[in-house]
Design goal:
This protein has 4 helices and 9 strands; from the N terminus they run βααββββββαββα. It is α+β, with helices and mostly antiparallel strands. The termini are far apart. The mean pLDDT is 95.
Amino acid sequence: MPENKTKQNEASVKKFLAQVEDETKRADTQSIVEMMGEITGYPATMWGTSIIGFGKYSYQYKSGHSGEWSLVGVSPRARNISVYIMPGFGNYDDLMARLGKHKTGKSCLYINKLADVDTEVLRELISKSVDYMKEKYDITD
């Protein structure tokens, strides 16, 4: 089985954020980092070179592939800000309808800027996602 390339590491979140050139994207990502820290109670840590994650869980697929990943995370990408909502969005139709301007992938929420979304709805989405992951993977603080 191939090993995950993206792993939790000791790189500085502060230094990573300072390197984000777009001022709005940097400030918005910092706001999301603060929000995720408040919601999860976990410190921000780097995962790979460009993802800021909070907490972690261990998984194993039926194929035998296993690894660790953050409960929730964020990354200031070139085109948008990616918010990692690990359970996906299928159970959050009401929240997604009220969120504002966004796109989604399997477990990624893409937003251009924080001003495009309702931050209270984003906070609730992150909170429900973290609660789901803690229950599913039996994570106790």
